[in-house]
Amino acid sequence: MNQIAQALHRIRSRSAISERITTQRAWHKHVLALAFAACAGLSGAAQGGKLGVYSGTVVVSGTELGQENVTFGASVKISLPLTSANKNSAMAELDDVDKPSAMATITRWDLVGRNASADSDGKVTTWTCSLVAPTEVPMSGSGTLNLDYRAKTHSMFIALVARKTIPLKCVNSRSGPYKKDQLVSLFFGTNEPDVQPWKELPFKDAALLSASYKLVPASQMKGRYGPLDQKWELRLTP
Q: Which of 16-37 are b and which e, b meaning 16 or more Cβ less than 10 Å from the residue's Cβ?
C-alpha cells in the first residue's frame, strides 16, 4: 500500500511540468530543489520582498484519484513576495526548499484504496483512512503569481509539500484497524501549470486579490485529480 502525493515542479511564470512522486521527505525536498534551480537563474531582478508581499489565506477542497482515492480539504496561510514589478505588470515567486513559507491546517483527508487484483483466496483487499483530527503542518512550495495591471487580472499556480506528517486512522479489510502517518501535498491556482495561456481572473484593486474559483483539470492533471474548489484572499503589504 503506497503513500502517494503530487509534487509539481520546475515552475516558472507560464511554463511547468507536474509529476507524481512517493511521499518520502527526501523526495519532496528533492522536487522543491529542482523547482528552485529552475527559477533561480531567471529571477535576477528579484528584490527579496522589497516590492511587497502578498499574504493571506487560501481554502481548497478536492479529490486525488488513483489506486488510493483521497478527498481532502485544507486552509492555507501563505506569503508570496513580489520579485519584479513595473507599471504594467508584477510577479510574485515562491521558491523555498529549506524553510516553510506556508502553514496549512488539514481539515479533511479521507482515503479509500483497493488492490488492483484479488488475492489467492479470490478476495480483493481494501482499506480506508481518515484524519484523526484537524492538523496544522508547515509547508514548502514553489510557484508564481502574475499580475497584469493594464487588464486588471491575475493568474497563478502554487504547489506545496508538507514538512511533517499528518496522523491517519485506518482500517484494512483483512488485518483490521491501524494507524499511519502520511506526508501530503497541496496545490492551488487558476489553472494547471502546463496549460497555455493561463487563466486570468479579474481584480478591482491590486492591493487585494480575492476569488472563488473551481479548477477543472484538463491536461496533465486530468485523471489524477478531480475539480478543485478554491477560495483565496491575498493582501499586499509593504
A: bebeebebeeeebeebbebbbe
